[in-house]
Amino acid sequence: LKTSCDELAVMGGSPAFSDTLHVGRPNIGDRSEFLERVNGILDRRWLTNNGICVQEFERRLEALLGVKHCIAMCNATVALEITIRALGMTGEVIVPSFTFVATPHSLQWQQITPVFCDIDPETHSIDPRRVESLITPRTTGIIGVHLWGKPCKIEALAEIAGRRNLRLLFDAAHAFGCSHNGRMIGSFGDAEVFSFHATKFFNTFEGGAVATNDDDLAARIRLMKNFGFAGYDNVVYIGTNGKMSEISAAMGLTSLDHLEEIITINRRNYAAYASGLANVQGIRLVPYEGADRYNYQYVVLEVDEQAAGIHRDMLLQALHAENIMARRYFYPGCHRMEPYRSYFPNAGMLLPETERLAERVLSLPTGTAVSEEDIVDICSIIRLVLKNGVEVTNALANGKNT
Ligand code: T4K
């Protein structure tokens, strides 16, 4: 354990970790179970196109989420694109800017304009109080993002969507295994989209799924993700290729068998961070509160430069020097990325909370690759860096060890 400023890697000491710690290190589940499923796939010589692993995966997801339809896809971005199209969204759609860039890209990709809405500083998700003023005659929908697996203000968004006749889609990329008022995320709005990317706590290598209770919508999505084929030689719709492969579904089935264990480890890690960072001035650990279920896959800090005595970016560099690869998700906000910053150069003026938060957030490593002991060390390094904020900032400004 490092106790003095000189020992920090950023001051010339050696890194605290010889193996790099990442945000988004995949959880593997049971390797032999997975390999057994892979052998089955190879034996059957059925590798994709609605194979039995995909079918079993979809049925198990529907049961877990309590929804009528769950359609497995190659990734969440394509799942969003297809769902947006199947919902008939056109013109303008209201989305947060404080999200992964895939959310607005899935609109812009099909010439729909994302209209960026500011976030609620408490939830970090789209602020329903600001949605209504962004509605124009061209608006056809709202996409809420359950950021960090914390549900959006679902009821308020549903009320606006219902009254203004808008489609309501949730980007639930972070919220698999989470609930809202006792109901699993997956059954809200017109549809919800999950990501099972490698960096998600529940992964299928690459993958995603759309959950909905709408029979017609589900039927359209199923056609669209398979080129529009409604049987041999019969295309009834414009479509694309959004299919999940068998090997991804095999990983999904294995991950499903270990879902609770992974969440338990994430919860344990989160608790270790909470106790290790308790009463540290200037740092707020984004809370997971109330009776709902969370997956705890994101451990997010807000760093208040004034109170902490160091800017988030300096803390980030100090952690990287220790081989703790914290990330600034979702800096700088989508409105500051192309093509949006060229399209809407003044968007930031309408997004004060997004701009403020983007300067403060830091995601820390968690998951099964990180131990409680690692977290004790990470927290003690964060404390040490903050205690020596001036020295660390000066050293970085002078280019020492960078
Ligand atoms: N909506 C939201 C709100 C999202 O957050 C995302 C994805 C999407 C939609 C779209 O979902 P998908 O189409 O991807 O299903 C990563 C992921 O690629 C992305 O899925 C995720 N959100 C986003 C938050 O994070 P990057 O560019 O930060 O990934 P990268 O390559 O820097 O990886 C992150 C860390 O994970 C690395 O430091 C190393 C570690 N890692 C990564 C991979 C892929 C591993 O240890 N092993 C691995 O196999 O985007």
Automatic annotation (TrEMBL):
InterPro entries: DegT/StrS_aminotransferase, PyrdxlP-dep_Trfase, PyrdxlP-dep_Trfase_major, PyrdxlP-dep_Trfase_small. The modification N6-(pyridoxal phosphate)lysine is found at residue 200. It holds the Pfam family DegT_DnrJ_EryC1. It comes from the Bacteria. The active site is at residue 200. GO terms for biological process: polysaccharide biosynthetic process. One of its GO terms (molecular function) is pyridoxal phosphate binding. Keywords: Aminotransferase, Pyridoxal phosphate, Transferase. Belongs to the DegT/DnrJ/EryC1 family. PANTHER family: PROTEIN RV3402C, TRANSAMINASE. This is dTDP-4-dehydro-6-deoxyglucose aminotransferase. It comes from Geobacter metallireducens (strain ATCC 53774 / DSM 7210 / GS-15). The lineage of its organism: Bacteria, Pseudomonadati, Thermodesulfobacteriota, Desulfuromonadia, Geobacterales.
